[in-house]
């Protein structure tokens, strides 16, 4: 927008907001993935830019985002010793450094922290980035090749990142972590174990009750037909003793 002042100040927003999948930086218009794990296909996002003048003017466009699930095999995780909100503010610069040193097109798939999101954004000094690289033919670069080149350029990358963050930066290349079990899955497993324990306890109780009932019936039959089959304490005598008595 060539205007000056409030008439030239643009704020961006998603018209068909999908808070569980995408988000947008209202100041820069940069779109981020929030959660597209396990999803594939094309998402149609309608983005609006609005100036802040008295008579507000707006414009809209559609952004098509294609998620390819096959990319997960070549994802590489890079760990930075910086807060997640600081990394997010400088994500464009981080991307530029990675592309320059790797000589590939780099896409930052996800930026996340190891703790709870709201707390970690300002308190945790470690941020993880999932990245994937594409060569000149727009083909995915194998993860092992990306990691090898990251290690080769590690020092150069850290030097350039220090210029962006204005502080010492350490970059660690990690394996892409396996998806952790969801709380729902954990709860289901715990519930299943508890139900199994209850079932086993119930079967043991039933088995014990059946055996005790059979013992009572046997005691009643032998004791009724053979009054001498019990000793003075009321206990069953051995069959050997009963046979000896009959003889």
From TrEMBL:
Q: InterPro entries attached here?
A: Cadherin, Cadherin-like_dom, Cadherin-like_sf
UniProt keyword Hydrolase present: no
GO terms in the biological process aspect are: cell migration; homophilic cell adhesion via plasma membrane adhesion molecules
Name its cellular compartments: Membrane
The protein's UniProt keywords, in alphabetical order, are: Calcium, Membrane, Repeat, Transmembrane, Transmembrane helix
One GO MF term? calcium ion binding
Concerning SUPFAM superfamilies, the annotation shows:
Cadherin-like
Membrane-crossing residue ranges in chain numbering: 185-208
Q: What is its main location?
A: membrane
Protein name, per record: FAT4 protein
Name its species: Atlantisia rogersi
């Amino acid at each position: 927008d060539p205007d000056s002042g409030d008439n030239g100040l643009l704020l961006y927003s998603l018209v068909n907001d999908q808070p569980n999948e995408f988000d947008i930086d209202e100041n820069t218009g940069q779109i981020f993935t929030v959660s597209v794990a396990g999803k594939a296909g094309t998402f149609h996002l309608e983005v609006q830019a609005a100036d802040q003048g008295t008579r507000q003017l707006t414009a809209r466009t559609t952004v098509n985002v294609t998620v390819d699930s096959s990319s997960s095999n070549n994802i590489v995780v890079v760990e930075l010793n910086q807060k997640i909100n600081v990394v997010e503010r400088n994500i464009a610069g981080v991307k530029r450094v990675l592309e320059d040193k790797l000589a590939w097109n780099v896409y930052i798939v996800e930026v996340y922290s190891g703790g709870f999101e709201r707390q970690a954004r300002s308190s945790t000094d470690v941020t993880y980035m999932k990245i994937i690289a594409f060569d000149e033919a727009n083909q995915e670069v194998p993860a092992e090749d990306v990691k090898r080149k990251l290690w080769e350029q590690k020092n150069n990358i850290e030097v350039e990142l220090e210029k962006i963050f204005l502080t010492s930066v350490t970059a660690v290349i990690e394996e892409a972590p396996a998806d952790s079990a969801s709380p729902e899955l954990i709860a289901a497993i715990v519930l299943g174990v508890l139900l199994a324990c209850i079932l086993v306890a119930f079967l043991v109780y039933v088995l014990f009750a059946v055996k005790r009932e059979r013992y009572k019936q046997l005691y009643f039959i032998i004791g009724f037909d053979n009054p001498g089959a019990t000793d003075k304490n009321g206990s069953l005598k051995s069959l050997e003793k009963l046979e000896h008595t009959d003889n």
